[in-house]
């Protein structure tokens, strides 16, 4: 018998919370230890318990007479996994209880068996009352909750709610192969339920997630998985045949591929992480297109730039990822308030340096998957104030919130992720 699914989930939580490891690193390693038929349930437990970690932790403190000792934090995580099943999943209560308690035995924590049994049974009895009175029902860290309340006094609750929902699986149709309508017809023939995205002209939302290799044309590069908001980067930059283009922070390569699908361009793609560039190369190989890939810090111009200016630059800047929490719930646990200040400095430096690579008459799209003004509109407002040769171009995009500069999208349960866009034009002469 392979590792217990619930024990694997609890250990993943433990490694993430206590050692700051990301789910991107932890999940693949744990899947190797589990039987293949356990994979879906393991991932459901991990993502769900991570998504609701702060609420689950509050519930645990209400159930326990005294906190579990620090050296026994794995048992605490088992308790959270058990509570999550009883609260949020359609799992038979007896299975959730018995298997979670058994996981303690499997982990050689026999002493915890009566503790888990008693606390989980109490939650089973008092679930409605306990969950109705939760202070941290939105399950967001305090620092981020505070920032959202300040930035979006009328929307912060909806942001939290949307961020705790599963995002749709969204596809990008490779326009070198098919029109969107043509691919939708193929999907209909195969009984796939899907619909066109509202904003991206090449996007499709699937009604339910599907294995990528079951999608018509995926292996041939005719479609790619990419959220609608991310698709808008290439759409808004609007590259044209013959242009020299820079994708400054390219990995994992979705936007790189979309730029190449959009026009015949000379594209340089940079990323600071050489290992992540391998992923870019794999993605480009699947769609049958190529770019010049260079592993370097985009802000260190001496490392990579030959002085030849670009017609268009995409700066999808490193950011907090607060607009994509629904896809990466560990952001709520791994990010800290101090990170925002540090990231803002990185973003400012990249924007300053890369602006010098844009030719007069050219354009730069500044984008992030953040919803925090510090990383978005505040950056662009400050940049415009310091650069007389820069002007902000209007973007024909609807938005739910006012924004001092650019367009801020918030996550939508049936639509796009949270994202920010600002398109800057370089004037031919300084004023």
From TrEMBL:
<keyword id="KW-0949">S-adenosyl-L-methionine</keyword>
<feature type="binding site">
    <location>
        <position position="297"/>
    </location>
    <ligand>
        <name>S-adenosyl-L-methionine</name>
    </ligand>
</feature>
<keyword id="KW-0963">Cytoplasm</keyword>
<feature type="binding site">
    <location>
        <position position="316"/>
    </location>
    <ligand>
        <name>S-adenosyl-L-methionine</name>
    </ligand>
</feature>
<dbReference type="GO" id="GO:0032259">
    <property type="term" value="P:methylation"/>
</dbReference>
<dbReference type="GO" id="GO:0008168">
    <property type="term" value="F:methyltransferase activity"/>
</dbReference>
<dbReference type="InterPro" id="IPR029063">
    <property type="entry name" value="SAM-dependent_MTases_sf"/>
</dbReference>
<feature type="binding site">
    <location>
        <position position="271"/>
    </location>
    <ligand>
        <name>S-adenosyl-L-methionine</name>
    </ligand>
</feature>
<dbReference type="Pfam" id="PF01029">
    <property type="entry name" value="NusB"/>
</dbReference>
<dbReference type="Pfam" id="PF01189">
    <property type="entry name" value="Methyltr_RsmB-F"/>
</dbReference>
<dbReference type="InterPro" id="IPR054728">
    <property type="entry name" value="RsmB-like_ferredoxin"/>
</dbReference>
<dbReference type="InterPro" id="IPR004573">
    <property type="entry name" value="rRNA_ssu_MeTfrase_B"/>
</dbReference>
<feature type="domain" description="SAM-dependent MTase RsmB/NOP-type">
    <location>
        <begin position="159"/>
        <end position="427"/>
    </location>
</feature>
<keyword id="KW-0698">rRNA processing</keyword>
<feature type="binding site">
    <location>
        <begin position="249"/>
        <end position="255"/>
    </location>
    <ligand>
        <name>S-adenosyl-L-methionine</name>
    </ligand>
</feature>
<dbReference type="InterPro" id="IPR001678">
    <property type="entry name" value="MeTrfase_RsmB-F_NOP2_dom"/>
</dbReference>
<protein>
    <recommendedName>
        <fullName>16S rRNA (cytosine(967)-C(5))-methyltransferase</fullName>
        <ecNumber>2.1.1.176</ecNumber>
    </recommendedName>
</protein>
<dbReference type="InterPro" id="IPR018314">
    <property type="entry name" value="RsmB/NOL1/NOP2-like_CS"/>
</dbReference>
<dbReference type="InterPro" id="IPR023267">
    <property type="entry name" value="RCMT"/>
</dbReference>
<keyword id="KW-0808">Transferase</keyword>
<keyword id="KW-0489">Methyltransferase</keyword>
<keyword id="KW-0694">RNA-binding</keyword>
<comment type="similarity">
    <text>Belongs to the class I-like SAM-binding methyltransferase superfamily. RsmB/NOP family.</text>
</comment>
<dbReference type="Pfam" id="PF22458">
    <property type="entry name" value="RsmF-B_ferredox"/>
</dbReference>
<dbReference type="InterPro" id="IPR049560">
    <property type="entry name" value="MeTrfase_RsmB-F_NOP2_cat"/>
</dbReference>
<comment type="function">
    <text>Specifically methylates the cytosine at position 967 (m5C967) of 16S rRNA.</text>
</comment>
<dbReference type="InterPro" id="IPR035926">
    <property type="entry name" value="NusB-like_sf"/>
</dbReference>
<dbReference type="InterPro" id="IPR006027">
    <property type="entry name" value="NusB_RsmB_TIM44"/>
</dbReference>
<feature type="active site" description="Nucleophile">
    <location>
        <position position="369"/>
    </location>
</feature>
């Amino acid at each position: 018998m392979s590792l217990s699914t619930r024990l694997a989930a609890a250990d993943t939580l433990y490694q993430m919370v206590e050692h700051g490891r990301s789910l991107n690193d932890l999940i693949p390693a744990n899947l190797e230890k589990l039987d293949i038929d356990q994979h879906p349930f393991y991932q459901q437990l991990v993502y769900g318990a991570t998504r609701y970690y702060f609420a689950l932790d509050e519930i645990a403190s209400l159930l326990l007479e005294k906190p579990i000792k620090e050296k026994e934090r794995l048992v605490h995580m088992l308790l959270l996994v058990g509570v999550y099943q009883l609260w949020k999943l359609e799992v038979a209560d007896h299975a959730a209880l018995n298997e979670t308690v058994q996981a303690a035995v499997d982990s050689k924590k026999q002493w915890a068996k009566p503790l888990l049994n008693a606390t989980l049974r109490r939650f089973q009895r008092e679930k409605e009352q306990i969950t109705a009175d939760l202070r941290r029902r939105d399950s967001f860290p305090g620092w981020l909750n505070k920032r959202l309340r300040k930035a979006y006094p009328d929307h912060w609750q909806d942001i939290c709610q949307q961020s705790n929902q599963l995002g749709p699986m969204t596809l990008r149709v490779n326009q070198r192969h098919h029109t969107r309508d043509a691919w939708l017809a193929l999907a209909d023939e195969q009984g796939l339920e899907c619909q066109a995205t509202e904003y991206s002209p090449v996007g499709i939302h699937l009604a339910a997630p599907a294995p990528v290799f079951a999608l018509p044309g995926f292996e041939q590069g005719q479609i790619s998985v990419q959220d609608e908001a991310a698709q808008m980067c290439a759409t808004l930059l609007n590259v044209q045949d013959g242009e020299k283009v820079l994708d400054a922070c390219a990995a994992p390569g979705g936007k790189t591929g979309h730029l190449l699908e959009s026009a015949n361009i000379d594209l340089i793609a940079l990323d600071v992480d050489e290992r992540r560039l391998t992923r870019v190369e794999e993605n480009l190989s699947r769609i049958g297109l190529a770019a010049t890939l260079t592993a370097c810090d985009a802000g260190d111009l001496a490392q990579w730039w030959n002085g030849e200016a670009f017609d268009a630059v995409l700066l999808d800047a490193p950011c907090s990822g607060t607009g994509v929490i629904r896809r990466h719930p560990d952001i709520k646990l791994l990010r800290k308030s101090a990170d925002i200040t540090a990231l803002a400095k990185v973003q400012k430096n990249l924007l300053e340096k890369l602006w010098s690579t844009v030719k007069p008459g050219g354009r730069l799209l500044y984008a992030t998957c953040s919803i925090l003004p510090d990383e978005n509109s505040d950056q662009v407002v400050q940049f415009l104030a310091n650069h007389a040769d820069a002007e902000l171009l209007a973007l024909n995009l609807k938005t739910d919130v006012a924004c001092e500069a650019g367009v801020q999208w918030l996550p939508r349960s049936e639509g796009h992720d949270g994202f920010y866009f600002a398109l800057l034009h370089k004037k031919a002469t300084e004023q």
